Amino acid sequence: MLDRETPFPGAARIGLTGAPGAGKSTLLDALVRELRPKGETVAIVAVDPSSRTTGGALLGDRVRVRSGASDPGVFIRSMAARDQLGGLAESAWSAVVILAAAFDRVFVETVGVGQSESDVAALVDTLVYVATPGTGDALQFMKAGILEYPDVFIVNKADFGAAAKRTASELRGSINLGDRGVSHTEAAVILTSASAGEGIDELVSAIDAHRQKLIDDDALRERRLRGREIQLLGALERRYGAFGIEQFGGRRALREHVRQDDSVSAFALLARLGLEIEEALRKSH
Amino acid sequence: MTAPENARRDSPWMFRTYSGHSSARASNELYRTNLSKGQTGLSVAFDLPTQTGYDSDHPLARGEVGKVGVPISHVDDMTALFKELPLEKMNTSMTINANAAWLLALYVATAERTGADPKKLQGTTQNDIVKEYLSRGTYIFPPEASLKLISDIVAYTVDSIPKWNPTNICSYHLQEAGATPVQEIAYALATAISVLDLVRSREDVPEAAIPRIVGRISFFLNSGIRFIEEICKVRAMAELWDEITLERYGVQDAKLRRFRYGVQVNSLGLTEAQPENNVIRIVLEALGVTLSKNARCRALQLPAWNEALGLPRPWDQQWSLRIQQILAFESDLLEHEDIFDGSHVIVEKTGELKQAARRELDVVLEMGGTVAAIENAYMKQRLVESQTARARAIEDAEITVVGVNAYTNAEPSPLMDGQWILKVDESAEQEQVERLVEFRSKRNRADVESAVQNLDDVLRNGGNIMPASIRAAHAGVTTGEWADVLRSLYGEFRAPTGVVATEGSGGSQATANTRDRVHRLADTLGRPLKILIGKPGLDGHSNGAEQIAVKARNVGMEVVYDGIRLEPGEIAASARDEGVHLVGLSILSGSHCVLVIDVLDKLRELGLGDLPVVVGGIIPEEDANKLCQAGVRRVYTPKDFDLTRIMSDIVDVVEEPSPAA
Asked: Are B221 and B289 in contact (CB under 8 A)?
């Protein structure tokens, strides 16, 4: 199954990131309630950080999503970010690819800790960032220099009133200042109240509009390819180290390989390139 | 041994026993017996379906009807519960929260039916939803809707049932959930403030009524074994309450600023090992809230010595009532002014607690109050941290618990011969369901429909829920129907578990050893050991499950914890989707047999019959054997306080070959 990726464009792949307590789980719950009655099937990959010292992880954040045991149209798999510190589980990548073959939408939920936004962005078609009103995290976000990744910004808990509106306008202001090169389109800023179910339909529309624009501009294929490139290079680097990549001719050479073989499944390519690097490593000894 | 002739005795606090089980009729008999033994107030325990707004025949109610309290599905049940008890003279405390408005409406309707004047009713609805999110778990609706309901009751009772305590702000359950005295004081006061602020902002509440409303706010406290500190805690709360009600609400009449509270002494600290020692613990804990006259409780309920083992019998409850009577009537406790006035030790300690509590209270208020601090899980996380620290201290014997981690060598207890806990009659559920079906068939459909419609209209217009609920009670609306109207309007809430951010590495050598075993097992499995902690059924006491989850993470496991109130089918489906190596179930409501076997069945249906299942809870040995025969691999009870050992045991279970036939 891993060797046969689905036809393009296939399932919508959507990332959901934001600080702990921003209400991502409640939002996912609201999204499931919005999408299921329309007949759309939903898979959720929830990534939680694992402890650096113990390796253990508490995967409790999905607690507010009630799928109902009887609904096969909802699938939730939580996993720990095992390999990269604070980053995304490598297995999240394969999970997204597999689930995209079976569900209409695949959501990837992660705790935003700075560097992980770029990781999630590489995994999905649309990245949604969830901000909490009044916490100043819009500002933190801007400082961290990752403002260019999200395609849709949400200010959740819009029932907080004035604080929510202020955060939204701060975000609108700073997005325009930022470099929007990566995300291709103008980012939307939406006010939601997940607990009251408000703004959810608007969020779905914004996600769909973003993806449609990518398709219309013929940019979705490029985004997926770039994502695949990042995942493959990352995976190879973790397996064979910088030295291994060097033996192959460096990142640039590898990247060209990935680009050339864009019709081959990522997993087949990973296996093949792995063999080639091993071969190169053997020769170097 | 008699009192000096001129000694002026204070009148004693109210003696209560938290009780109710099986059916309204059985509980009514129990209440009348208790009153005849000298109990002076009633404390009604409702079963979990009633507390969470389900009729006795709802699928989620299965196995829970009549277990931890009495099932009340409609006005006939309530009438049967108080048969031949003069409501105008009773003082009735009802432990009811999410749907407090409904149970109070049934109580009022019962009074009206039996000719009692609602204005003369005295008692308390617990009606504190904040601690339900933090600890007890019988919430239904989201925080804001819940607070609105609380304020409805407050606004209604102040004129219509003026002697009623509309909300009993609970720090009791915060202590059970791990709160330190400072957290207990701060979070309880924060809750009271959030209720009063909301009430004050209501258009239908005149400014002039605020002092009277403040005067009706009461508290429900815990009292632990560190009883000197508890005395100081209560004095600190009383002083802070006096200050807050004056500063924040401008209450000039000192009487209305008085800190009025009831107590149930600590049940969490009662031990399964050498349970007879619990009697001594209960006495000391009772002293903590009765010794200081200025901070003495208004009502006291004492648990039974064997509560850590199962449901207490009438004799066990009588023993606890006698403790109260001996304290109040035999000893000279009630003959003195406050014996701590002038004690610099007590004054200093009280001052320290006050200061620290003020700081923590400010943190919560700055966050936006208790609703914000629930939604962002701040309070819950603090509690889980405190609880984790406490569990570790017991495990490492930094805290001495006699009979548990010290002085464990003991003679067999003669108290535990024969049938020494109460068994709820298994036919109680069936009979209750039959009565309910019959009740429904006899109602006037048009009345019911119009009352339900009226309730819905009132809620949609933001009106007070009480009058519409009383009308619905008279019309024969059921507990489930009433709650369904609210559920469809407000939605159902799932609270944050608070376990995610609790970090705790390191620990003892034993913890390190277990962590090594977990890591080695991961190598064999090809991925980290992943377990699911599930709480099936309606029981919301999640502290045990949370502690297990945190500990499992700290020994390197990946833990999926989905929170409370899950159907067996949901747990099984989650075990499949998540690809776990083991399922751990936690149940404290006594319905373990039905629910655990349901989970095992559902797992088998999904082809996961080999997946190891372990269970934790207050589970008598007989039931434990039954569960093991049904396929459960291990049963843990409160005597297994060493969480590290449980973790090591879980590794054993996963390593063992499946015992499949």
From this structure: yes
Residue B500 forms part of a structural domain: no
Section B98-120 average pLDDT: 97
> Using one digit for the tens of pLDDT, what is the confidence trace for B373-387?
887 778 988 988 898
Contact between chains at B567 and A51 (C-beta distance less than 8 A): no
CB B88 within 8 A of CB B471: no
- Compute the nearest-CA separation of A80 from chain B (Å): 7
Domain that holds residue A274: 221-284
3-class SS at A218? coil
Q: Do A58 and B494 touch (CB under 8 A)?
A: no
Determine the distance from the C-alpha atom of residue B205 to the mean position of all C-alpha atoms in its chain, rounded to a whole number. Answer: 30
Residues A255, A138, single domain; the answer is no
One domain, residues A124 and A188: yes
Write down the pLDDT at residue A55.
Answer: 74
The alpha helices in A59-199, defined as continuous H runs, are 90-100, 116-121, 137-143, 162-177
Is A55 in Cβ contact with B494 (below 8 Å)? no
Over residues B472-513, the pLDDT tens digits come to: 999 999 999 999 999 988 888 776 666 654 545 556 788 889
Of B407, B434, B455, the domain-final residue: B407
Domain count, chain B: 2
d(CA A196, CA B354): 37
Measured distance CA(A79)–CA(B488) in Å, rounded:
33
**Do residues B393 and B533 both lie within one domain?**
no
Token pair listed for B243: 């200050």
CB B220 within 8 A of CB B172: yes
* Prediction ipTM score: 0.79
Count the domains in chain A: 2
Q: Is A136 on the interface with B (CB under 8 A)?
A: no
Task: Name the pLDDT band for A147 (thresholds 50, 70, 90).
Answer: low
Q: Work out the minimum CA distance from B655 to partner chain A, whole angstroms.
A: 18
Rounded to an integer, what distance in angstroms lies between the CA atom of residue A107 and that of residue A113?
18
CA of B650: how far to CAs of A18, A113, A239, B635, in Å? 34, 32, 32, 11
Chain B: closest CA distance from residue A262 (Å) = 30
Cα A46–chain centre separation: 10
DSSP 8-state symbol, A193: B
Tokens linked to B562: 């989905």
In a domain, B496, yes or no: no
Between CA A200 and CA A213 the distance in angstroms is 20
Domain enclosing residue B531, as ranges: 509-655
Domain end marker among B381, B407, B433? B407
Selection from A140, A239, A200 nearest residue A16 by Cα: A200
Separation between Cα atoms, residue B50 and residue B30, nearest integer Å: 19
Angstrom distance (rounded) from CA B274 to CA B278: 8
Look at residue A83 and tell me whether its pLDDT is greater than 70.
no
Alpha-carbon gap, residue B651 to B649, rounded angstroms? 5
**Catalytic option among B530, B541, B592, B602:** B541
Give the 3-state DSSP-derived string for B1-46, with helices as H, strands as E and coil as C.
CCCCCCCCCCCCCEEECEECCCCHHHHHHHHHHHHHCCCCCEEEEE
Strands B14-16 and B299-301: parallel
Cα angle, residue B166 at apex, residues B164 and B167 outer, rounded to 5°: 135
Does the active-site annotation cover B344?
A: no
B114 burial type by CB count under 10 A (0-12 exposed, 13-18 middle, 19+ buried): middle
* Edge-to-edge strand ranges of the sheet holding A12-18: A74-81, A42-49, A105-111, A12-18, A126-131, A152-155, A188-191
Q: Is the pLDDT of residue A268 over 60?
A: yes
Q: Is B187 a catalytic residue?
A: no
